[in-house]
Amino acid sequence: MDLDYLRAHPETIPRLVEHQRIRITPLGGAKGGRVERWTLDDGTSLFAKVTEAPNDALPAEGRSLRRLAEAGAARVPEVLTAVPEMLVTAWVDRTGPSAAGAEEFGRRLAALHAAGEPTFGAETDGVLATLPLPNTPEPDWPTFYVKHRCGPLLRRARDGGALTAAQASTVDDALARLADAAGPPEPPARLHGDLWSGNVLPGRVGDVEGWWLIDPASYGGHRETDLAMLALFGLPFLDTVLAAYDETSPLAAGWRERVGLHQLFPLLVHCVLFGASYASRTVDAAKSF
């Protein structure tokens, strides 16, 4: 059994695992699941996420990976299978980040965004961590961002106690003026959708080296959202990435002043998932535009 066999017969993967036909090395656990390194007979390594509670999260991740790969721009590990109980992709051997890799990544990310989407939203809803992501198409980005990203998350953060009533009111006021602060209209970009630094892996797949995108929640959105998420927790050589991106696909004037606007979404996600420790950063982002 080798990689070509699995490509030709992806439906057999769960059975092969069940009968221990694939060597498995545990990499860690997560709530309701685990991550593993699989080794085939020919020595090829694969990455696997396996869940004990099958649902649409792993198929949604697989759809997003394949959607990004269709653009032929950013480097995306091949998806072998994406079924409710498991996601299996090519293995990325990690390497250290470099300025040259960052420059190439910036150009490839710009090309990915430029591949575009037919609308703001997507044909199917998505999942980010454990949160459902409604992707109902909308005619413009501010409407989509408020109605299907920030608005629902704000309500959950307030109702769950992560934001006080006063903090939630500050964010709500920001959403009310968002359309006026969003900058010039742009066409829908093909987004990664969860582009924090942990989902960018400098590494090698086979003989191909570069910076690889993993764990996406792709949809048609505003390209500045992906860029703002890269800055949220820091990315090595971020200035190099942004300069190469801007040279390839120039950003609209004032984009740096809109970073907080675009970080509202991921910060609200963190409020919902991790509680009030993210409240002050969320309020600061809301006050920034």
TrEMBL record:
<comment type="similarity">
    <text>Belongs to the fructosamine kinase family.</text>
</comment>
<protein>
    <submittedName>
        <fullName>Fructosamine kinase family protein</fullName>
    </submittedName>
</protein>
<dbReference type="InterPro" id="IPR016477">
    <property type="entry name" value="Fructo-/Ketosamine-3-kinase"/>
</dbReference>
<dbReference type="GO" id="GO:0016301">
    <property type="term" value="F:kinase activity"/>
</dbReference>
<keyword id="KW-0808">Transferase</keyword>
<keyword id="KW-0418">Kinase</keyword>
<dbReference type="InterPro" id="IPR011009">
    <property type="entry name" value="Kinase-like_dom_sf"/>
</dbReference>
<dbReference type="Pfam" id="PF03881">
    <property type="entry name" value="Fructosamin_kin"/>
</dbReference>
